[in-house]
């Protein structure tokens, strides 16, 4: 699918004293749809999906704090619940509820937590690999003594404090890195994601827009039982999507589907972590069918 027609307009809103960026695809009289990107990504990664839904929905896609054209957090700590507050502020300030949410990875985890906190505000939700680490990964992490986990986190932050954003001599070099990260990308996709995901530095080189500190996952998070309780509060139809070539585990097989009241999981072949890029047409058809089936 090639991008065509006018693109979105850029706007800002505030959350916890940060100026955060979002794009608006217009069509304000239509039902609202929020598209939330994943870690080290940006809002324009949704452009192909947004193009498929812009005639039927009023689409808003934010840049998470520390990502894209949003401000970086002071202090460099990025906790899941801070991201949830930001999404809550956007929905509240723009009066989007009840909103349909499409989300990916970290954005999926944020959106599922939001939907559990405010089930009355979410009409339907699609999360691509948004459940976070698998139960096996979490069990391994929790076998580490708490002081070891915290010391590891502090050490990671210390290393990141001395790490400068990587500089690529040319945009073509950055584009090559993008293609190495996901070989499923077409040339058009890789170029678009690179252009919108990088800035040109004063010396003419290019660097990714995201804050390096987003690489450090905070050990301060809700216990699994509380997260599962929030998932159980989600009152809307829920679609959990996974690529079979991804590291993410199948929620049907690992048991996490049981925490939801109205969810089903779908695996998509020949796709990795970025299902909406790797199998765009399949993903769009799947979501359109899901929205049609669950229309009020």
Summary tags:
296 residues; alpha/beta; Rossmann fold; eight-stranded mixed β-sheet; two-stranded antiparallel sheet
What name does the CATH topology carry? Rossmann fold
- Please name the CATH architecture: 3-Layer(aba) Sandwich
Count of discrete alpha- or pi-helical segments spanning 4 or more residues: 11
Output the CATH class name: Alpha Beta
Task: Explain what the structure shows.
The chain has 296 residues and is an alpha/beta fold. The chain has one domain: Alpha/Beta hydrolase fold, catalytic domain (Rossmann fold, 3-Layer(aba) Sandwich). It is 38% helix and 19% strand. It is built from eleven helices and ten strands. It has helices spanning 47-53, 80-93, 106-117, 135-142, 146-161, 171-181, 187-197, 224-233, 251-254, 275-278, 280-293; strands at 9-15, 18-24, 32-36, 58-62, 99-104, 122-128, 198-200, 206-208, 238-243, 263-268. Strands 1-2-4-3-5-6-9-10 form an eight-stranded mixed β-sheet, with helices on both faces. A two-stranded antiparallel ribbon has the order 7-8. The chain is globular and about 55 Å long.
């Amino acid at each position: 699918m090639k991008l065509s027609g006018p693109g979105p307009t850029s706007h800002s809103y505030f959350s916890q004293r940060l100026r955060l960026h979002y794009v608006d695809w217009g069509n304000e009289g239509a039902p609202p749809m929020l598209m939330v990107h994943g870690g080290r990504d940006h809002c324009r990664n949704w452009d192909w999906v947004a193009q498929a839904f812009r005639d039927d929905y009023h689409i808003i896609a934010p840049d998470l704090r520390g990502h894209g054209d949003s401000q970086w957090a002071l202090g460099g700590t990025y906790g899941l619940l801070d991201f949830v507050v930001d999404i809550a502020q956007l929905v509240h300030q723009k009066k989007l509820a009840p909103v349909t949410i499409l989300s990916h990875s970290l954005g999926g985890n944020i959106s599922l937590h939001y939907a559990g906190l405010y089930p009355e505000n979410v009409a339907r939700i699609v999360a691509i690999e948004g459940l976070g680490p698998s139960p096996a990964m979490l069990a391994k992490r929790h076998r580490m003594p708490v002081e070891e986990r915290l010391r590891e986190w502090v050490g990671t932050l210390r290393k990141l404090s001395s790490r400068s954003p990587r500089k690529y001599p040319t945009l073509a070099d950055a584009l090559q890195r993008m293609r190495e990260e996901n070989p499923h990308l077409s040339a058009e996709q890789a170029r678009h994601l690179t252009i919108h995901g990088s800035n040109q530095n004063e010396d003419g080189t290019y660097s990714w827009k995201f804050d390096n500190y987003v690489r450090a996952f905070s050990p301060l998070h809700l216990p699994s039982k509380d997260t599962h309780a929030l998932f159980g509060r989600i009152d809307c139809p829920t679609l959990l999507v996974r690529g079979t070539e991804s590291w993410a585990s199948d929620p049907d097989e690992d048991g996490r589907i049981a925490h939801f009241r109205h969810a089903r999981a779908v695996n998509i072949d020949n796709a990795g972590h970025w299902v909406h890029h790797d199998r765009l047409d399949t993903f769009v058809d799947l979501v359109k069918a899901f929205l049609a089936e669950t229309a009020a």
